[in-house]
Amino acid sequence: MDSIPEEKITEVRERASIVEVISDFVALKKSGKNYLGLCPFHSERTPSFTVNEEKGIFHCFGCGAGGNIFNFLMRASHLNFPEAVKELAKRYGITLPKRELSEEEKRRRSLKARLFEINERAAEFYHRVLLTQKEGEEGRRYLANRGLSKEIIAEHRLGFAPAAWDSLALFLQEKGVPLNLAQDLGLIIPRKEGSGGGSRPSFYDRFRSRVIFPIINEGGRVSGFGGRIIDDAAASDTQPSPKYMNSPESPIYSKGQMLYGLNVAKGPIRERGTAVVVEGYMDLLSLHQEGIRNVVASLGTALTAAQVSLLGRYAQEAVLVFDADESGQKATQRSLELFLQEGLSARVASLPSGFDPDRFIRQEKMAGFQRILNDSLPVVEYMLEQAVRRYATQTVEGKVRAARELIPALSRLQDPLEQSLYVQRVASRLGLRESEIRAQLRAKGTAAEEAGKAPPGPPRGPAHERLLLQLMLLRNQVIPEVKEVVGEDGFSDTRHKKLARELMTLWQTEKKVNVQELLSRVGDEDVKALISELLLAEESVLDADRMLRDCLRKVKLSRVRQEIQQVDEEIRQRTRKSQEGSAGAAGLKELLKRKQRLIVEQKKWVDDSAVGHRPDARQ
Question: CA-CA-CA-CA torsion for 93, 94, 99, 105, nearest 10 degrees?
Fold first, then answer.
């Protein structure tokens, strides 16, 4: 791990705004002292993800994820701790001391970080070829003919892959990039044995004679690439080359988990509350060119649940604008129920026959495109119109097929009033009785809630232990008293025990607890989540002194009762052995005395608590 001075880590943490950073990933809304949003770490419909700027922490009350700004960035952007510090330092203009990594440190570096760096080098190579080199002239001409400005090309970091078989492979080799890692990213492909030679690499480039579209995640890092062939005629030869080609799946790229252009569009989407969803790279770029900025692309496929969930972090509503051809209509149909399932409002805009969004916006400009957005239909309404168009709904068979196709969508509507109104609408349009539709809905059942539920977090542990830890975090001066009465190992829950030990150690050395330092020194993610949860539930602490007395009493009573149970078990075993005449019966008298002392101690804790005192913990 890189050695970053502690004072620099503190400077970065104090300068960085946790709300600002998390807002790059989640649409946050102010709620009292906190900010709320949909959790980026699990699928949910009701916001349970909470951020507190003053405390510098986040916590999801759904899945239990929590921590400080470094913990968030590590989890959201797949970084290790030094990488998260460097990322924030760069963002906030803080200079970190530089030093050369040792060979051992280089070997230990995060694999994902190295893969992102290789993709970054490749993106720079393709971009430089497009902008400045002779080999990029074809690409420059193609993009100019498509009407893209230099600003759009620069913003989206478009590039060009030369026609030569190993231009990128040679470049990466010269830069000392491990070619096996570039192969893992799908940038290069191994040559057949014996086809290499001399100083040339034993790999050839995946992308050749193609315009390159870097696929950038919402954190601004290049995860993969798309490439479009320049000569459409080449895509229709006897042995056609595919018009579009994407990076294969890798440790940092999963096609169904990403949305093209989200890194640029997330701000405009949050501002407008609406995301326009298209299929392809050029669809998105042409819309951006005309000033429609709240647009993302599905990377040429039907949307996945993960993509809809990702979109839901930033948008309140989505408008789907897919191609007017048959494949575009099928992609739309496959995507619609996902929006209902994820609880994200959606509409469908229909293009004239023969158009895709790229061609339509270039011909009709913004005014024309805005018209089709205004005429878009809600998901269920669109599905009804499509069903009526596909099936002969004047026949019994057609009515049945249309109704059965619509029932799953109706069952997923969360608003009872909306569902009731659409039942009326569907019944009227198909010539059925409402009761028939409702009967089908009852048979189908309401939408499964499990899809939106958070994965189970760690067990919560006893409530009185949690309250004690909360008091120790919020009022550090109670730590010595808790240590005296409860001790380091007096907590039954494993997470509680770990946190108590950290708090007591910090108090012993520092005589105070800095929450951010505590989060930095704790390695267990479950303990970090516990810290953030307890801190964000500060309002639950009403009468701290009384709560402390009650919790100490409960902890002590719990331990005494547990000891009594253990002694009782030993007494039973010794008594049985005594009856059997076994030598193991010795010590029974001492056990009885010990039980009596424990019963007296238990009585004192019960009686003295009634008048607000606690017994001497040293008894």
Answer: -90
Q: Please state the rounded mean pLDDT for residues 16-37.
A: 90
Q: What is the mean pLDDT of the chain?
A: 83
- The DSSP output letter for 96 is P
CA angle 563, 564, 570 (to 5 degrees): 90
The number of angstroms, rounded, from the C-alpha of 225 to the middle of its chain's C-alpha atoms is 21
Query: Smallest Cα–Cα separation from 230: which of 327, 322, 162?
Result: 162
For residues 451 and 20, which has the higher predicted lDDT (pLDDT)? Answer: 20
Global confidence as pTM: 0.65
Long-range contacts of 328-334 (CB under 8 A, 24+ apart): 328/279, 328/356, 329/386, 330/302, 331/279, 331/298, 331/301, 331/302, 331/303, 332/382, 333/383, 333/386, 334/302, 334/303
Residue 243's Cβ-count burial label (10 Å; 0-12, 13-18, 19+) is: middle
Token couple for 242: 């595919």
d(CA 326, CA 141): 31
DSSP string of 361-422, one letter each residue: HHHHHHHHHHHHHHT-EEHHHHHHHHHHHHS-TTSHHHHHHHHHHHHHHHHT---HHHHHHH
Q: Which residues of 417-427 are buried (b: 16+ CB within 10 A; e: fewer)?
A: eebeebbebbb
Question: Is the Cβ–Cβ distance between 419 and 413 less than 8 Å?
Answer: yes
Query: Are 226 and 212 a contacting pair, CB within 8 Å?
Result: yes
Q: What's the chain's Rg over C-alpha atoms? A: 32
pLDDT (0 to 100) of residue 447? 41
Q: Residue 618: what pLDDT?
A: 43
pLDDT digits (tens, 9 = 90+) for 172-197: 999 999 999 999 999 999 987 655 55
pLDDT score recorded for residue 136: 93
Identify the residue whose tokens are 């998260």: 84
Cα angle at 545 between 544 and 551, to 5 degrees? 85
* Share of the chain residues as helix, strand and coil, in percent rounded to the nearest 5: 55, 10, 35
Task: With both helix axes pointing from N to C terminus, report the angle between 434-444 and 396-411 in degrees, rounded to the nearest 10.
Answer: 50
Token readout for 317 is 């509503």
d(CA 323, CA 337): 18
Rounded distance between C-alpha atoms, residue 483 and residue 480, angstroms: 5
3-state secondary structure 132-154: HCHHHHHHHHHHHHCCCCHHHHH
Phi/psi at 221 (5° precision): -105, 140
Distance of CA 52 to the CA centre of its chain: 18
